[in-house]
What does this fold into?
Amino acid sequence: MMIQGSCCCGRVKFEITQPPKMMGTCHCSRCRKVGASTFVMVSRSTLKWIQGAEAVTRYAPEPPFKYARCFCSICGTALGEIDSEADTFPVAAQALDDDPQVRNRFHEFVAAKPPWYEICDGAKQFAEHPS
Ligand SMILES: [Zn+2]
Ligand SMILES: [Zn+2]
It folds into this structure.
């Protein structure tokens, strides 16, 4: 089954050929500010580009932060680490157009969660990174 993903302006389009391994939500300020708090873990072998890979910009933060974040250079839609060389990497769930067939498994960095965000599911909560 194919799960389609795209950015807001439509330049970036991709497919995931199998349901992602899992979904998680990170409440750290980094994920929150780029609008990618909820993510799915995608195996690189299941990611197929349709168009727009060249429109993806990578933001690599200064240390101590280490996770680069990708976004559409035209409309700014967060895409997670979609250009990663790793076997498995996070893709922002809001970029998906189809049901990824997985539901949120955990909340991490809950200690950094803003007060206006209320956790409304029963998924496990971790104050920081799940250990
Ligand atoms: Zn776009
Ligand atoms: Zn985070």
In short: Helices lie at 29-33. The pocket of zinc ion (ligand 2) is lined by residues 26, 28, 30-31, 109 (CB under 6 Å).
